[in-house]
Amino acid sequence: MELGNQIQIASSSGSTDVVSISSLIGLQTRSNFYHVKDGLISLLRNCLELEARHNSSVTILSGHVDHFQSLPSVDVGWGCGWRNIQMLSSHLLAHRKEARKVLFGESGFVPDIAFLQRWLEIAWESGFDPPGAQHFNCKIYGTNHRIGTTECASLFRSFGLRARVVDFGPKESELLYLSVPGSTLGQPVKQRNAVRVSGPMDKYVHRQQGLNKGRHFCHSLHNGKSDNSKGKSEGPQVLIDWVWNYFSDKGLTISGSSQVVVSDRAPLYFQHDGHSRTIIGIQVKYQKNGTNQFNLLILDPSDGTVALERSLKTTVGWQKLIKRGVHTLKKPQYQLCYIDPGIASGEELNELKTINSIFFEL
């Protein structure tokens, strides 16, 4: 009730002030989640190292990440975006000192969904992502509205974190993305409001809501059917290559004895039509015929943390829960959010209020 009164007072003022933010910092509560004693990444690393004894492979992982699962009585069907934000936050708080000093008022913990919603409202009130703010009328606290990549980026950017958005899709749909990726070609970049994309999961869920009213959209990719009518096999490899380059950036060296290594890169917010998950690493297996087999390593909010822990500790069934090969990437469009190191300020922080994306053709 106290939180509700504070939010009502802050919202009615029409602006974000120091008092309302201070109240939020003092009132916010830690999100409840099942704590894995040894850490999921540590358990996963053990499984991958055991697996590597029987094949020729290299795996790159993020550091510590807590798994936040969607709860039946709380957020099943709409909360996957918030849960992935919580997973990314758990990593940033554990591994980046500069992020720990700015995130959530230096609380040092991951807030629950209600407080993340209020932090997003503050981001909008501060001028981050005007099209998204307009769609939600700057109000999302206490609702079950679905969010996506741009909301993730807006929230983290409001703290000065350099959250970036990357789009993958067919060339003919290029104009429907957040921006035309002309920046790499010396062409002007279109702003987000160049097309009607607004809020929840960007063009994905918003477009689908009118077609599938009343349905839950947070479902696992491995439970879905292919909707890539072109059947292009080379397309998804573009995304896989990008993820591999992301985790192996900064000249990461892998010796013959180091088949599982930990990168300093943060996990990736991974969006497709209907669901979002968190990419925590990538594996490549070297086949005898000379080809490489890639697997994304993913934490899914729709999976139970206890089941994940059990499968990793017993080394039974963990591959089905965590690994996703190229053949599973059957959606026509994907979107990623990643967070570069450092904290923006001044003019750079002001520029972060406009969300653009880089586009790669699948």
Automatic annotation (TrEMBL):
Please give one Pfam family short name. Answer: Peptidase_C78
Q: Specify the domain of life of the species encoding this protein.
A: Eukaryota
| UniProt xrefs under InterPro entries | UFSP1/2_DUB_cat (IPR012462)
Q: Which GO molecular-function terms appear in the entry?
A: ubiquitin-like protein peptidase activity
Give every UFSP1/2/DUB catalytic domain span.
56-337
- The entry's keywords: Hydrolase
Q: What is this protein called?
A: UFSP1/2/DUB catalytic domain-containing protein
Q: Which species is listed as the source?
A: Gossypium mustelinum (Cotton)
Tell me the classification of the organism that encodes this protein: Eukaryota, Viridiplantae, Streptophyta, Embryophyta, Tracheophyta
